[in-house]
């Protein structure tokens, strides 16, 4: 029975919804500056939504999903800790970073599974560490494939690549949305991907991204978009074992 892959991918936030909950406009503006620099540096796009109190944020969270919330603790009426307890009790999967001018609630932050506790005024080193703890990007060896298309440099997210193959004297990158033909050798284009565990040479001249393999059907790999790719018959057993090992590793990471 084929092993299904569709539910085993680790989440990678290419675009995020981030909530900033703080009754101080100055503190929100300071945090936004840090975020803009970090997100641009790491090529992550985000929608930033500001809230001046916990009540406003909790109301909004009932109707839309936020990937990350920066939550000030000392606010009028409901505190950030109160709001965090409500989120925790509701089973929210939003990643939480507390903001506070003191460490009074540091120990309590563990009880609601906060990712980090930032003490104001925020310093760059602490902010960097908080963002690293969020694990917004996957631990891929090669997150982006750098190419030049019609004299224009491009960065292709490798997670979006289905496979790369050779067509005549052209190497083609097949992504979820487009096919990119390049006048460059297959070996040169794919050299950097050899260090990335996701990419598997299924037959000479074809490198497949195992993230997008749905199942193995005889001598074929069936991809998430319905396409099929041939498997080297001589090395079929080894190729199948490599794919299954990758799947099991991904399941273990999810757990």
UniProtKB/TrEMBL annotation:
Which stretch is the leader sequence? Answer: none
UniProt keyword Phosphoprotein, yes or no? yes
- SUPFAM superfamilies given in the database record: CheY-like
* SMART domains reported in the protein's UniProt record: LytTR, REC
InterPro entries for the chain:
CheY-like_superfamily, LytR-like, LytTR_DNA-bd_dom, Sig_transdc_resp-reg_receiver
Q: Which UniProt keywords apply?
A: Phosphoprotein
Write down the CDD domains for this protein, in alphabetical order: REC
Q: Which residues form the Response regulatory domain?
A: 17-135
From the UniProt record, which GO molecular function terms apply? DNA binding; phosphorelay response regulator activity
What are the 4-aspartylphosphate sites (modified residues) in this protein? 72
Reply yes or no: does the keyword Phosphoprotein apply.
Answer: yes
**One Pfam family of this chain:** LytTR
Source domain of life is Bacteria
| Role this protein plays | May play the central regulatory role in sporulation. It may be an element of the effector pathway responsible for the activation of sporulation genes in response to nutritional stress. Spo0A may act in concert with spo0H (a sigma factor) to control the expression of some genes that are critical to the sporulation process.
Name of the protein: Stage 0 sporulation protein A homolog
